[in-house]
Design goal:
The complex is a heterodimer of chains A (189) and B (448). Chain A contains ten helices and no strands. Chain A is mainly α. The chains are: A mainly alpha (189), B alpha/beta (448). Bound molecules: flavin-adenine dinucleotide.
Chain lengths: 189, 448
């Protein structure tokens, strides 16, 4: 009897979760800003398909609980349950990371590489594709998006909880940081 | 549990476990056409519906009937007026949809037979359907303003509320306006598409005047309503950037204060509210809206004789079975709670995906998915100042529920309630970038 009850309870639980969270339906609401499969078609919006699951979960929950500032996302995620956020993170983490390779001038690449080798490589890898456990892919991420994100890390007006990344950005001038973003944006692998 | 219930239940569980609700059993995918869906109107709503239907199930035959061969996005078309954007950046063609196997027909739909389930075009072709997606957008009720005609809108008094030739005409009129001239925007009684649109336009026009030697000009908004969308955000920006109210560049007159225009006189270039006359160098008069004519002719406009009521779970018309109405033509949302769906491109896109998912589930005998509806609308009031509003709706007990936690406008103040401070400019600046990124993605989400 107890076993039956347990099975029933489990079945009901998953049913309730489904009624609330059909992740494909939820994930499709992201496409008009982040692109189908999370591959963005607009320079200011990040690609999110193929980012690490834990990173995705963390940033969305930080926004939800007001531990991290954002322009748009902090409002969007507050409407989702933690389970839905986890499901979205799992969903996008399963998509392949698809670099959108952006061309830039050889001089800009040299300038970017200088900054990257000096400051960023340790945590992001040389091409932005081999990041630390807690950092996201930067290879083929939109450079414009990254420039905006770096402005947030630099500005005192945004809550950006990762202390090390915040510290790192202050080691680079705004122009050098932007060049580094363009360098990462031009990486195909 | 009956065996059918149980089968559905098991499928639901598989879906919950992560398998796509939309995966199609092999036996079916090999077979011929599973169903025919006709989509009327290739705007944000119709194009997105056609694209998702084909993406989710290539076994469905999709015919999109659209009168134009190139679509111009209204969103961000106000930026064309100030010169910050080229109209070409707003356009998309239908080749992407054709490549996905959508049969694109460029013609006017002239008749819908919801009982015989077929539609006919001006050229005399007819198309039968198993399901019809109606997405014709809005029509303008020119007769609501005495003295206004469709022809006047195209020649002298552009509404520019459908992006295209009228946007360029209005831009030309703005350029020709002398310094010290008056640019009048006449706002119709709601609901109209893009609730913040007229106020964004006022700012874009003011920005143009500021940078093109027309600093003494005025923008007068004559409003048939008593308040408007994102009002505190607009008023803050107008004040800071252009001057607002008496003596400022932008002035807003609420309906209660005489803003409700009843008549327009094109030879004298005046608007009348019944008592006063307002003379303008440019009169941008936006007529009230109603659902596109083809939707009304098909008997779908059962809400206040103007809009098409639909079911919360899948946007099916409450007037006719197997007809789904999406985008500006429909009415939905938490009407009782005064949170109707805004008429926006984002909403149309969101509704289109719900219809596609629901139809694909139905055609494949799968359980109906639980919908969510979302909206975001960015307004750009200067090249470095923007803000936005976000909406989330769910369906509970067959009703739309507005989810307050997942909705809201950009912050109006920072700091504490006792000691508020202005929102840092960097927040406003970034929204301009995100508006453009949104446009590129939403166009690609519908047309690629
Ligand atoms: C100035 C302005 C700014 C805006 N800004 C924003 C914004 O920032 N964000 C936002 O989300 N929304 C914005 N909007 C609103 C947005 O443009 C609309 O909500 C959106 O276009 C609705 O999409 P739709 O598919 O319902 O209709 P539409 O885009 O109007 O498409 C309908 C299509 O159907 C076709 N059609 C109609 N009848 C027939 C027929 N009988 N036969 C064949 N074809 C037919 C038309 O040619 C048209 O292409 C703005 C609108 C304006 C005017």
């Amino acid at each position: 009897m107890r076993r039956i009850f347990l099975v029933l309870a489990l079945v009901c639980l998953s049913f309730a979760a489904q009624a609330r969270t059909d992740v494909t339906i939820l994930a499709r609401t992201c496409n008009n800003c982040h692109g189908v499969g999370g591959v963005s078609a607009g320079a200011s919006m990040p690609s999110i398909g193929g980012l690490q699951r834990d990173y995705l979960r963390r940033v969305m929950k930080q926004w939800k609980y007001d531990e991290r500032s954002a322009i748009t996302m902090s409002r969007i995620v507050k409407g989702f349950s933690d389970d839905e956020i986890d499901a979205l993170a799992d969903y996008f983490a399963k998509q392949p990371w698809t670099p959108v390779v952006q061309k830039t001038s050889p001089e800009a690449m040299d300038k970017g590489l200088a900054t990257v080798s000096k400051i960023c490589t340790d945590c992001h890898g040389k091409a932005g594709s081999d990041p630390d456990v807690d950092a996201p892919n930067l290879n083929g991420q939109w450079a414009r998006y990254m420039e905006l994100e770096l402005e947030k890390y630099r500005s005192g007006e945004f809550k950006m909880p990762h202390r090390k990344m915040k510290k790192a950005i202050h080691e680079a001038s705004p122009a050098d940081a932007a060049a580094a973003a363009r360098y990462f944006g031009a990486q195909s692998k | 549990m009956s065996s059918i219930d149980r089968r559905n239940f098991l499928k639901t569980l598989t879906a919950a476990a992560g398998a796509s609700v939309l995966s199609i059993p092999k036996a079916w995918s090999a077979s011929a056409i599973k169903a025919r869906v006709v989509v009327i109107g290739g705007g944000f709503g119709g194009a997105t519906a056609a694209r998702y239907l084909r993406m989710l199930d290539p076994g469905i035959e999709v015919t999109l009937i659209e009168r134009g061969t190139r679509y111009t996005s209204c969103p961000l078309s106000n930026e064309v007026l100030s010169g910050s954007r080229d109209i070409k950046s707003l356009q998309a063609g239908y080749q992407g949809l054709a490549r996905r196997g959508v049969q694109v027909v460029h013609n006017e739909v002239t008749q819908v037979d919801p009982v015989g389930k077929k539609v006919s075009t001006a050229e005399g072709n007819s198309f039968s359907y198993d399901a019809l997606v109606m997405a014709p957008g809005v029509d303008f009720d020119y007769g609501a303003f005495k003295g206004l005609t469709a022809e006047l809108s195209e020649t002298r008094l552009p509404h520019a509320w459908k992006a295209g030739p009228q946007t360029l005409l209005l831009k030309q009129q703005l350029e020709d306006m002398p310094d010290g001239g008056r640019f009048i925007i006449v706002v119709p009684k709601g609901p109209f598409r893009c609730p913040p649109g007229p106020y964004e336009r006022a700012a874009q026009v003011a920005m143009y005047c500021q940078h093109h030697g027309k600093k003494k000009s005025k923008i007068l908004i004559l409003d048939s309503n008593d308040s408007f969308s994102k009002r505190p955000l607009f008023e803050e920006a107008w004040k800071a950037l252009y001057g607002y109210g008496q003596g400022g560049m932008i002035e807003w007159v609420a309906a209660a204060n005489g803003g409700k225009v009843e008549e327009v006189n094109p030879s004298a270039m005046t608007c009348l509210n019944g008592f006063d006359e307002f003379k303008g160098n440019v009169i941008n008069i936006i007529p009230p809206h109603r659902a596109g004519k083809i939707a009304r002719d098909a008997g779908l406009a059962n809400f206040k004789d103007a809009w098409c009521a639909v079911k919360p779970e899948n946007m099916e018309s409450t007037a006719h079975k197997d007809v789904y109405v999406i985008g500006d033509a429909c009415v939905g949302g938490d009407l009782a709670g005064n949170n109707a769906f805004p008429k926006s491109a984002h909403m149309a896109n969101s509704q289109a995906k719900i219809v596609a998912a629901s139809l694909v589930a139905k055609i494949n005998g799968m359980p109906q998915p639980t919908p969510v509806y979302t909206n975001t609308c960015y307004s750009v009031v200067a090249h470095d100042w923007g803000f936005s509003v976000v909406h989330l709706f769910r369906v509970e007990n067959g009703q739309w529920v507005y989810i307050k936690e997942g909705s809201g406008i950009s912050p109006v103040t920072f700091g504490t309630k006792e000691a508020p401070r202005p929102v840092p400019r960097i927040y406003r600046k970034m929204e301009v970038d995100y508006a453009d990124g949104w446009l590129r993605n939403i166009l690609s989400d519908g047309f690629s």
